[in-house]
Amino acid sequence: MDFAFTPEQEALRQEVRAFIAKEMTPEVLAEMEAHNEGRPFHRSACRTPHVSALFQKIADRGWVGISYPKKYGGQDGDRISQYIVEEELFRVNITVSLGGSGAPAIMAAGTEEQKLHYIPKLITGEFMFAQGFTEPRGGADLASLQCRAVRDGDYYVINGQKIYTSNAESATHVYLMARTNKDVPKHEGISIFLIPMDTPGITVRPLWTIQNNPRATQTTTYGHARTNETYYDDVRVHKSTLLGEENKGWRVGSMGLNLDRVGAARYLISVRRDEDIINWMKTSTELDGYSLARDPAVRDKLAELWTEAQVCRLMTMRSMSIVERGGKFTYEGSAEKVWAPEHGVRTTEAITQMLGPYGQLLNGSPRAIRNGLFAHNVMGAFQSGINHGSVQVMRDQVARRGLGLPKGARK
To answer: Which residues contact 215 (CB under 8 A, 6 or more apart)?
Structure first.
């Protein structure tokens, strides 16, 4: 097996790097810092002049939605090229990934009308989805959701509450999971709806996170200053907003989450911490008169973590290869969701031990390292094992879908 990129793909990487060197001007960087929300910048969420112009230049080069069909606004390209572009831009805190946007699920389960309506606008940034999955009483047990959608002729009437609906304050739509049949096992009777956020009856309330005060520095992993509660009071939506079949939403949602996990952005969420500490070690001299970079124990631990990071990368490349070849993609995304977040937690803990008290200084502290990046990473690390499905649930999916094991007995 050849893990190397082709000369054409390496040329694309160099082209993207040259673009970044030229276009990440002081004006762009200043706008990004002024509007920093502790997360990568997305075209649909940042409308400032210089950042908007940067995103337009990226779009003009055909670097958004590369692997999507041209009829839906994409480039008919390959996923590896898309991966390369996403990887280089994500490292400077810009995301052009459609993972988490709902686009993979719409492509897999949507009607032709839905694909033509949503995918081009998701690629251009005109549309942006928030994900309405988690509920206050359910936690990681997503199938216990209670938000109801009751059929009324050609419409559904939705009532309920969601929590941790990130980006709901700026999203144009919500990708909502609701119960449409309460008289069947909990993994059945669930449906998914694509709902405009300006639909009457939707209320968004902010939940400010631990990363808000002081504000997490840019490139912090899970440094979001805000998430949201969303309420649905007699929200009336047409049946055309239903994604996939009624009562089959669990399968659609699981498939969408699996596909969302494939790509550079997901891989880099977990391993950019490794790159950050190694780059800091290369450029720093001493910490209170002691050189961490020359400490054999530190060097050995960093080499171990870097090796684990390459496992994350190779798992991502394997998943992309399966999707690219039209293979059966079942448990691979779940396996990535176990390995990568747990690796990220191990890295964060190790960095904290290496830096000692300095690893606890947040943004704004006079002696904080890299504006408190490593300290803010600590505060965001452990949620990666829960977001988009807990690692315990993912292990169960690997066992059942990947290894063919029977469902475990309930205690």
So the answer is: 36, 38, 225, 363
Domain around 69: 7-96
Q: Are the C-beta atoms of 330 and 288 separated by less than 8 Å?
A: no
**Pairwise CA distance, residues 184 & 250, whole Å:** 13
Q: Do residues 340 and 267 lie in contact, with contact meaning Cβ atoms separated by under 8 Å?
A: yes
Based on the fold, state whether residues 69 and 138 are members of the same structural domain.
Answer: no
Give yes or no for a contact between 218 and 36, defined as CB atoms under 8 angstroms apart: yes
Clarify whether residues 47 and 158 are in a common domain: no
**Statement to judge: residues 334 and 396 lie in one domain:** yes
Q: Quote the DSSP letter at residue 100.
A: T
Q: Is the alpha carbon torsion for 119, 120, 123, 128 positive or negative?
A: negative
- pLDDT tens track for 92-122: 989 888 776 788 889 989 999 999 999 999 9
**Domain count across the chain:** 3
Report helix, strand and coil shares of the chain as percent, to nearest 5. 50, 15, 35
For 288, the token pair is: 């209170």
CA–CA separation, 299 vs 80, rounded Å?
Answer: 32
Least confident of 50-59, 83-92, 319-328: 319-328
Q: Which residues contact residue 295 at a Cβ distance below 8 angstroms, ignoring those fewer than 6 apart? A: none
Listing DSSP states for 162-218 in one string gives: EE--TTTTT-SEEEEEEES-SSS-TTSSEEEEEEETTSTTEEEEEEE-TTTTTTPPT
State whether 143 and 183 are in the same domain.
yes
Rounded CA-CA distance 256/221 in Å is 22
| Residue 159 maps to a domain | yes
Token pair, residue 350, equals 């190790």
What distance in Å separates the CA atoms of residue 176 and residue 118, rounded to the nearest whole number?
15
Summarize pLDDT for 337-383 with one digit per residue, the tens: 888 889 999 999 999 999 999 999 999 999 999 999 999 999 988 88
Do residues 271 and 175 both lie within one domain?
no
Cα gap 141→42, rounded to integer Å = 29
Residues 6+ apart with CB under 8 A from 342: 385, 391
Beta-bridge partner residues of 194: 175
Residue environment code for 204-227, b if the CB has 16+ CB neighbours within 10 A, otherwise e? beeeebebbebbbbbbbbbbbbbb
Q: What's the CATH code of the domain at 52? A: 1.10.540.10
Give φ, ψ of 153 to 5 degrees.
70, -125
Q: For the chain, how big is the Rg over CA atoms in Å?
A: 22
Same domain, 209 and 276: no
